[in-house]
Amino acid sequence: MSGANLGTAFVSLLRRDLMLAYRHRAQMLNPLLFFVIVVSLFPLGLDPEPELLHAIAPGVIWVAALLAAMLSLDNMFRSDFDDGSLEQLLITPHPLPLLVLAKIVAHWLVSGLPLLLLAPLLGMLLNLGSENLLPLMATLALGTPVLSLIGSIGVALTVGLRGGGVLLSLLILPLFIPVLIFAANAVGNAGAGMDITGQLAFLGSLLALAFALAPLATAAALRISLN
Amino acid sequence: MSIIPNWLHRLSSPRNFYRFAGTVSDWCGWIALVLIAIGLYYGLVNSPPDYQQGDSARIMYIHVPAAWMSMFVYMVMAGAAAVGMIWRIKAASAFANASAPVGAMFTAMALATGMLWGKPMWGTYWVWDARLTSELILLFLYLGYMALQSAIEDRDTAARATAILALVGVVNIPIIHYSVEWWNTLHQGATVSKMDKPSIHISMLIPLLIMALAFKFYYFSNVLRRARCEVLEREKDKSWVQELVRGEQP
After folding, report:
1. Where along chain B do its domains lie?
2. Residues of chain B in Cβ contact (below 8 Å) with chain A
3. Per-residue b/e over B112-150, b at no fewer than 16 CB within 10 Å?
4. Burial of B156 (C-beta count, 10 Å sphere; 0-12/13-18/19+)
């Protein structure tokens, strides 16, 4: 066994990924810009009537968040795969699922968290109403980590493939459906003045389940892809 | 090793699997043909029309077994893929890979017959009904599985990668199913209310079960035939395949 313990390995990998993301700020911003542009296309394509926008806002914001997550997911293992550091990760003495979890956390911090912070602005653009912004952010806080976790499985399966990006969306988007349903519904219900603890509890349990299982599946998938 | 019985282990060798699958596939195919003939005769000719829906309800003799099969095949596929991944049994992986197109076909069939039935009954081909929606998502899962399978060139890597995808799908299918159902009950005002399900009469149940059995036999026949092709392709450089080719094409 090497000298570094597991905690050190986890933290240093997390720090490295965050540093890399910071050095490539533009790359990190692109999915966010995409998110904003997609959302702002809907009022142009539909009607800019406030009532209509209010009704579609939760769904539009969440679908755009899913698509933005797909875009950023593609980069999760790509550069590490290209320069070979992914293989180095696989042969460390530390359990791979935990190292994978560090990368997933880093991915969420640079893609999910900015989405979360940007969402209130888009909610206002779509006339969501200020009282619904907090529920929207709550669903994003619980839902976007699930996207990073489940998405990592798909990325790990497609990392070595040509045209992996399109394939990734085919594999992963159907699995995102429960998150979309509960999250968009929670925001919609909040707008109607209804209780949303049920939906948030569902999102929380999805997060717990994905947190427990997804790193294991991702680690297994990485071992296969890099064989 | 002791988990796998000896005969199963012998079967897992590609050569034995090829021969065994050929025989079983033929038998299953004939049984399926006979059962489909009997089931369709009973269902379309010899059973009473539904008291509410008339003859349109007869599409259920295709639709319901196809919908059952769409779930059944996914479970079998995931099970076979897991066996193939854990014990490295190539025949099991071949079986899983061969299952995907058949399962996708059953799913598409269930959707198509459901839409045809929906037009006279609900007045529209498509409603966002919970069962229709879950079936559509199941079709997406099948298509994703097939897309991943065809994207990876190396067969063994493809088999293990798709196995992981199938297992992830198995964990997700109940979640997706219940979330869609729950979503649907909330949107019930917008959709056509589901017809209340009267308990099915025995004269309709028998042809339905015969058709369900027939579809199972058809599935095994078809999937074994596909798996045989895959085994041949995989093993094309082995001596037994070359002997087979030389022997059959003198």
Report:
1. 17-228
2. 137, 140-141, 143-144, 147-148, 151-152, 157, 160-161, 164-165, 167-169, 171-172, 175-176, 179-180, 182-183, 186
3. ebbbebbeeebeeeebebbebbbbbbbbbbbbbbbbbbe
4. middle
Which of these ranges, A141-150, B25-34, B71-80, B120-129, has the smallest mean pLDDT?
B120-129
Contact B168 A217 (CB under 8 A): yes
Cα B90 from Cα B93, distance rounded (Å): 5
Reported as a single tens digit per residue, the pLDDT across A70-97 is 888 988 888 888 888 889 888 888 899 9
Provide mean pLDDT across the span A11-29: 89
pTM (predicted TM-score): 0.86
Q: What is the interface pTM, i.e. ipTM, of the complex?
A: 0.85
Residues B2-11: tens digit of each pLDDT: 566 676 666 6
Q: Do A185 and B186 touch (CB under 8 A)?
A: yes
Tokens representing residue B35 in the block: 């059962």
Q: A177 to chain B: which residues are within 8 Å by CB? A: 137, 176, 179-180
Task: Give the span between the Cα atoms of A19 and A25, in whole angstroms.
Answer: 10
The rounded radius of gyration (Å) of the Cα atoms in chain A is 18
Average pLDDT on A130-139 reads 90
Q: What is the Cα–Cα distance from B35 to A115, expressed in whole angstroms?
A: 56
